[in-house]
Amino acid sequence: MSSLPYKQAAGLQQNSLHPHSIPVDPSSGPEISTANVITFMYQSPWRRSKTVDLRNSSTVTEFILVGFEKSSSSTQALLFALFLALYSLAMAMNGLIIFITWTDPRLNSPMYFFLGHLSFLDVCFITTTIPQMLIHLVVKNHIVSFVSCSTQMYLVFCAGVAECILLAFMAYDRYVAICHPLSYAQIMSRQVCVKLVSTAWFFGLINGTFLEYLSFRNPFCRDNHIENFFCEAPIVIALSCGDPQFSLKMIFADAIVVLLSPMVLIVISYAHILASILGRASSSGRGKTFSTCASHLTVVIFFYTSAMFSYMNPRSTHGPDKDKPFSLLYTIITPMCNPIIYSFRNKEMKGAMVRALRRASLA
């Protein structure tokens, strides 16, 4: 030991004491001097781990959904009761519509065919996000794995995109029924309805794959706290290590096609419906049609504007207080309102419900 130079002996002593303290990788950065080694050894564990993280960032394997954890316990209890009631109501109403439209032979028109699939999409949509939020309002552990987060995001994309397209097809169906009643059976045949619904599902699955790739194309090594109650794409992308601008721009362009195009078709369809009604309906018929169209457009505007705020706004204008209300609007409020607006105000649907209750009571 004495035959070696002092610095070399000190270096051997440090390496023997902590052989794995500093990663020896020439490509990882500049050469580390003996003074830096000694400084590193006598740092506190917290500062030491922080130094290692800065030099060799580790890959994120889980996310933390912040959700409503910053709220007080009484507020969380109130939110749990409210969201549980809304979720139960939405599931019950949509489940009833699915059962009625798929079992009652009198409801065999295209409108009820589309309503059944819309309710099924609503069930998938809210089940993907709301139960997890309810659990996180009760337990303190808000950690979700990387796989769970990506799976949830994919399902939200699939159901959301399919619902956007299906709402446009439903508006077109109403346009054909009111403006071209003599050709309605020929234009909206069973085969055409099946193809339209299949198209909505197909674009949902394909678009979900595309958006999933954009969201997770970059590695994650930054903060893993998601300031929302579910894994929303723009927030997750902002946490990635690489440049998120490309993914955000592509999602913006995709939202223009997926959100704006169906919304334009819906507005055009209802504009033609209103113009047709104004030209030939009585005052009472006009009032009923205006009420129906206004209700449909209200749900559509809520759904599309909240989704556009989440996916078409610059991230600089976002924040937890702004994102959560809009996320709640299109994840739970709209799926709960759809059955009320599209179904429960319909006389044929009410009659089908009465028949279903009678069959249940007899059974």
Q: Nutshell version of this structure?
A:
Keywords: Cell membrane, G-protein coupled receptor, Membrane, Olfaction, Receptor, Sensory transduction, Transducer, Transmembrane, Transmembrane helix. With 363 residues, the protein is an all-alpha fold.
Notable traits:
363 residues, mainly alpha, Rhopdopsin 7-helix transmembrane proteins, 2 domains, 3-stranded mixed β-sheet, 13 helices, 3 strands, disordered N terminus
Description:
This protein folds into two domains: 6-55, no CATH class; 62-362, Up-down Bundle (Rhopdopsin 7-helix transmembrane proteins). The chain has helices at 6-17, 34-41, 45-55, 73-103, 110-138, 146-179, 184-187, 190-215, 233-238, 245-280, 283-312, 320-342, 347-362; strands at residues 62-65, 143-145, 225-226. It has a three-stranded mixed beta sheet with strand order 2-1-3. The protein is globular and about 60 Å long. The N and C termini lie far apart (94 Å). Helix 5 (110-138) runs antiparallel to helix 6 (146-179), helix 6 (146-179) runs antiparallel to helix 8 (190-215) and helix 10 packs antiparallel against helix 11 (283-312). With 363 residues, the protein is mainly alpha-helical.
